[in-house]
């Protein structure tokens, strides 16, 4: 058994180490950088299996450290019933990056809208939650001098209105990128024929799943998405709960 430790900066040393090894099975947690190393090690002739961190944790025998984590991964990767994460291609990771940046921008806009509504409510101005009504309300507020707002607050609303417009423009750019990916991808076009699936959902599914052959049937795919009730059953008594909100994260809204 070989034990060798590498730091994050020793990328070339890691590649040389595995290049000099005979073909073997390599297990890794599906964390940051794992998909990159899966491609590199596969090109070197090794078999790579990525495991979700939650499936590795039960095999950690004592305190958590790098050595014990590595042993746990070795133990988990050899289990015949273990479920693995299919490595993502560079194209999948690129589409995933587009969705993650867009999701962050949308979250920033939601926080900004909530802040604007909260600040205005302190001055007795209540605007409905609909974002289009907020835009219209802001346009009226910044151009009206007879609503009782101080000039300082009105100036702040002008700045927030500009910030909101900038976020709208940036989100629109990513929406156009997603539509372009959807238009040029044959797999996305096939998914788009299903009722209720548009460019955002189709491209997010392709980025997350890629190779559909890793699922035996539609039920496995639905369970992987999280479209199953949470279960806490014991002693023959079945207890089912609601579906987690994490199940819709794949849609990247």
Automatic annotation (TrEMBL):
| Bilayer-spanning residue ranges | none
- Residue ranges of domain Transposase IS116/IS110/IS902 C-terminal in the record: 188-244
Residue span(s) of domain Transposase IS110-like N-terminal: 18-123
Coiled-coil ranges (or none): 150-177
The entry's keywords: Coiled coil
Pfam families to which the protein is assigned, alphabetical: DEDD_Tnp_IS110 (PF01548), Transposase_20 (PF02371)
Q: What is this protein called?
A: IS110 family transposase
User: Which species is listed as the source?
Assistant: Mesorhizobium newzealandense
